[in-house]
From TrEMBL, chain B:
Recorded family membership: Belongs to the ABC-2 integral membrane protein family.
Pfam families: ABC2_membrane
Record-given protein name: Transport permease protein
Membrane topology, as annotated: Multi-pass membrane protein
Domain of life (superkingdom): Bacteria
Length: 405, 264
């Protein structure tokens, strides 16, 4: 039996020449909307108990509209949603908390908002208090809480009663890791008992480790529904395409985003990252060997050429940089029209995160003397942890361990 | 209609706790707490009474007490404050609660019910305070006061009907929220709360007579100041109007529900 059946669902926002025309429609006057803007169209899928479904898509693809309709706050314009059971959302943790009231009073209020009566709440109260683990603060006004404490209470109420469908937003990654583990345990427990999880995230790692199915929304329709790996690969292809075009647009409007400078005797043609099999990649598993390929074109005769690159983390901190001068791979006496390709092979011994590569073409050991071309943010890539043990930090330094007692 | 009632019943715990929280949250950090709810309207009455009865030497026909004017004012205020509070809060209700309505699923009808409940509670406290003041001024409670229960219901119906219509409209046409407080002010001065009916000039009597709050406020005066039974015939016209407005309000509320969150 399906928990959730979505059949040809569509949502449009209607605009009228005047809001009074909208109001006239309530009184059955025949007024046509001046414009209909469809944000979702022809969405159909069904969900079985115990599934964990990742919902992915770019901003504006319609994810939150879809979730709001499943939650029931938005009404579909066409099609139908059939839900067999209760839907709970951990979308907005602490929604409706009143800062002047105590945690306990807010729990009563929030659970009441979820539709539970006083007896049911009373019964669950001890459990909620115990799960939140905030001690005596539970009877203090919420304004005295840290945001983490508020989140603990909010999560405890939201999951005090097992729902048939649980909607989880990225909000879940807030809070300390102890509580994160605890809340994930609870979510997994729910899943075992038959709760279906709908998870919205941009984080490939989260989707792949939590979900057994993914649905990709693009432009208001489902364009892929299947195994998380497949769907995420497809999604990344779309993102890559989009990023390239936006970078181009950005370059025109605001040159500071991607800094390009240099005298132009040599220019950078392309920068790309490949895996061991030689395929273009954007997501690299920790520790995998990769190859950074940079093609440069010589525009005028130059006596000497050095190619350098620098890997930076998302905050712009240098992680690693070197150049062909230090690597003893100098090229001399280059002629105009020549094309040079460099391949830098290295293992991606980097921590999980997003990185950028800056590249430079120059003479001698540094770009200060003669700079042919310097390009910031020439390439972006992500490091993800699929197969290695859990670790934190910028670098992958795998230890061996000996334990004595 | 039945659906509305059953969902209200299911969410009764939420309605009650919302009304209580409303009260707690308003006064929890002030030293005098709930007293402010009584001090505020009484201070207003005191100001009006002082200025109008002493400075302007207004006299009420048919009553000799020195404090007659203060009594008259308080009786009118009791009716008007309930009326104005419900309309004022319903007006911005859906906009204020927009965030909640966008994120959570719950019967929307609970929102106006909470407003009515919490306004009624305020009105009850005001009434009790007023009884104390009345006793101090030498006016003892009488059995006619039981009529107030019916009259309060009439005020609630009228205010909730108007408030629901305006609250729904305000979501889509935000000018409503700006213009209504002004109109309420005008309405207040077209209702004999501050002044006695006798000073209304002849040519304006018709206008004031068409005011649905006029029979209500007059009935409050009859009961609280003069200790006599209200003129029910006039009140019934207002009640009929109130029920009509309530039905229109509920109809508009239902018709707007699918689109309301879109516009918030």
């Amino acid at each position: 039996m399906s928990l959730l059946v979505i059949d040809n669902l569509g949502k449009s926002y209607r605009t009228y020449r005047s809001e009074w025309q909208r109001i006239a429609r309530w009184f059955f006057l025949p007024v046509k909307p001046s414009e209909e803007h469809w944000v979702l169209k022809h969405i159909s899928f069904s969900v079985l108990p115990g599934e964990a479904i990742g919902i992915v898509g770019q901003n504006g693809a319609g994810k939150s509209t879809l979730l709001k309709m499943i939650t029931g706050t938005l009404h579909p314009t066409e099609g139908a949603i059939q839900i067999n059971g209760r839907v709970a959302a951990i979308l907005e943790l602490g929604m409706g908390f009143n800062p002047e009231l105590t945690g306990r009073q807010n729990v009563y209020h929030a659970a009441g908002l979820m539709g539970f009566n006083t007896d049911e709440i009373k019964q669950a109260m001890g459990e909620i208090e115990a799960f939140a683990e905030i001690g005596d603060y539970f009877d203090e006004p919420v304004r005295m809480y840290s945001s983490g404490m508020q989140m603990r209470v909010a999560f405890s109420v939201a999951t005090a009663f097992r729902p048939e469908i649980l909607i989880i937003d990225e909000a879940l990654s807030v809070g300390d890791s102890y509580f994160q583990h605890k809340s994930f345990d609870r979510i997994r427990e729910f899943q075992k008992q038959g709760t279906t999880l709908l998870i919205v995230s941009h984080d490939r790692g989260a989707i792949q480790s939590l979900c057994n199915r993914a649905i990709l929304l693009e432009g208001g329709t489902v364009i892929k529904d299947g195994k998380p790996e497949e769907v995420m690969d497809f999604y990344n292809a779309i993102i890559a395409e989009k990023e390239n075009t936006t970078v181009k647009i950005r370059k025109i409007e605001d040159g500071s985003v991607q800094t390009c400078s240099g005298s132009g005797e040599a220019s950078i043609e392309s920068v790309s990252l490949h895996n061991a099999a030689g395929e273009l990649v954007e997501f690299i598993p920790v520790g995998e060997p990769v190859s950074l390929r940079i093609r440069a074109k010589i525009n005028r005769d130059i006596p000497e050429l050095v190619m350098g690159y620098m890997i930076k983390d998302r905050l712009g901190q240098s992680v690693f940089g070197t150049n062909t001068h230090y690597l003893d791979c100098k090229l001399e006496a280059l002629r105009a029209g020549e094309v040079v390709e460099y391949r830098f092979g290295f293992p991606a011994n980097l921590g999980v995160g997003s990185y950028s590569v800056a590249v430079a073409l120059h003479a001698t050991h540094s770009h200060i003397a003669r700079n042919y071309e310097w390009r910031d943010l020439a390439l972006l890539f992500n490091v993800i942890n699929i197969s290695r043990e859990e670790f934190v930090g910028l670098a992958w330094i795998p230890p061996s361990v000996e334990c004595c007692r | 209609m039945l659906g509305i009632l059953s969902s209200l019943w299911q969410y009764r715990g939420f309605v009650v706790s919302s009304i209580r929280n409303d009260l707690i949250a308003r006064f929890v950090r002030s030293r005098l707490g709930g007293l402010w709810m009584i001090i505020n309207p009484l201070a207003q009455v005191a100001i009006y009474a002082l200025i109008l009865s002493n400075v302007l030497a207004a006299k009420l026909p048919g009553i000799e007490s020195k404090y007659a004017y203060a009594l008259y004012l308080m009786a009118g205020m009791l009716a008007w404050s309930l009326f104005a509070e419900i309309i004022g809060r319903c007006l911005t209700l859906f906009i204020d609660q927009g965030n909640l309505m966008k994120k959570m699923r719950f019967p929307r009808i609970t929102l106006p019910v909470i407003v009515v409940g919490s306004s009624l509670l305020n009105n009850l406290l005001l009434f009790i305070a007023m009884l104390v003041v009345f006793a101090v001024l030498g006016q003892t409670p009488n059995f006619q006061m039981f009529w107030l229960i019916l009259l309060t219901l009439a005020v609630v119906a009228l205010a909730a009907g108007i408030g629901l219509i305006l609250g729904v409209l305000n979501v889509f046409v935000r000018d409503i929220g700006q213009v209504i407080p002004i109109l309420l002010q005008v309405w207040f001065w077209f209702t004999p709360v501050v002044y006695p009916v006798s000073i209304i000039p002849e040519e304006l009597k018709g206008t004031v007579g068409a005011n649905p709050m006029y029979p209500i406020v007059t009935a409050y005066h009859d009961i609280l100041v003069y200790g006599k039974a209200p003129d029910l015939q006039q009140v019934l016209i207002t009640v009929a109007l109130a029920i009509g407005l309530m039905l229109i309000g509920l109809f508009m509320f239902r018709r707007s529900t699918p689109e309301m969150v879109d516009a918030l």
